Amino acid sequence: MNSPHEKAMQAILYGHNCAKRLKQRLEDPMADDSSVSDYDLATSIVHCFSNAISILSDSPKSEDDQVSDLSSMGSPPPLPERSYSKKRKINMTNSIMNWRDDSPDPYYDGFLWRKYGQKSIKNTKHERSYYRCSYNIDHACEARKHEQQIKDNPPVYRTTYFGHHTCKINHNHDAVFTAVRDQVDDMGSSRIIRFGKELDQEKENHSTGFPLPVKHEEGIIKEETTDQYREMTGDDVKDCQHVMEENQSSLSSSYTPPSSSVSETDVSDLDLLLNNLDSWDRYGLFDFGVQ
DNA sequence: CTTATTTGACCCGG
DNA sequence: CCGGGTCAAATAAG
């Protein structure tokens, strides 16, 4: 069986492969004739990383300590009107913050979320939005996230994740993974993973029926600055490339990525990468608060 | 119609 | 009591 680290590594490798394949496709659309759409690939990338993050952030815990201790509450008081009894237990006290992400724009993380609240937070000018996994009911998935704009000259949105996904929304991801693995298994490796956001395509290729991102709106995106930001991203310009560096040294323990030699075939991407890293650094990105 | 979001009330820990 | 998180009725969207 696989250790959590191995699983996470696998997920990352898949994501890496997907990313490479997508990149290749963008460079040479003709080369790849598979039936997997760009959208599927992008979705898989995000999904892989989400899985990996989820696995890694949970693995330090000895067991799968879900927050569900609904049973431990003894006898619920008889409330005729509203029974608030149960869900209340599931909050910060029990659920750990898995990880946090600051990004210039709330992005599609591959999961389908349902908004259940919005609150203004003291000493902040923007409201915080509360989301839970849309499969909360179907699969008793208790993943939740909070999202809030924490800065707005360059808009920065902080998304904080709680719990982890127990739902199986893999749908056809498996198919995608397999296809990807078959094709990209031994491409030269690069350390740079780049993927854009706004993986829209709601209209065109929706072939596989992936869950679509929640529409957030009103609350947050109303800011003028944000608005114009949106405008820019409006059509084909896939703005805001989210860039991250696959940092091998950060994966602290025993395993090491197989390939350490890097093919820097994409110098053009490096420019972009450096630019973005610069600004992302300022935001203190990818602050994994795992402990 | 069904399903998702909005929004004020409510809960609860500090 | 306050602040943050959640519920659920009302509303909007599809």
TrEMBL record:
> Which Pfam family is one of this chain's hits?
WRKY
Composition bias (Low complexity) maps to 249-263
Q: One GO term of the cellular component aspect?
A: nucleus
Gene3D superfamilies reported for this sequence: WRKY domain
Cite the InterPro entries for this sequence.
WRKY_dom, WRKY_dom_sf, WRKY_plant
The GO molecular function terms of this record are:
DNA binding
What's the domain of life for this entry? Answer: Eukaryota
Keyword DNA-binding assigned: yes
Q: What is this protein called?
A: WRKY domain-containing protein
Origin organism lineage: Eukaryota, Viridiplantae, Streptophyta, Embryophyta, Tracheophyta
Region ranges (Disordered) = 58-84, 245-264
Q: Where does the record place it?
A: Nucleus
Q: Keywords on this record?
A: DNA-binding, Nucleus, Transcription, Transcription regulation
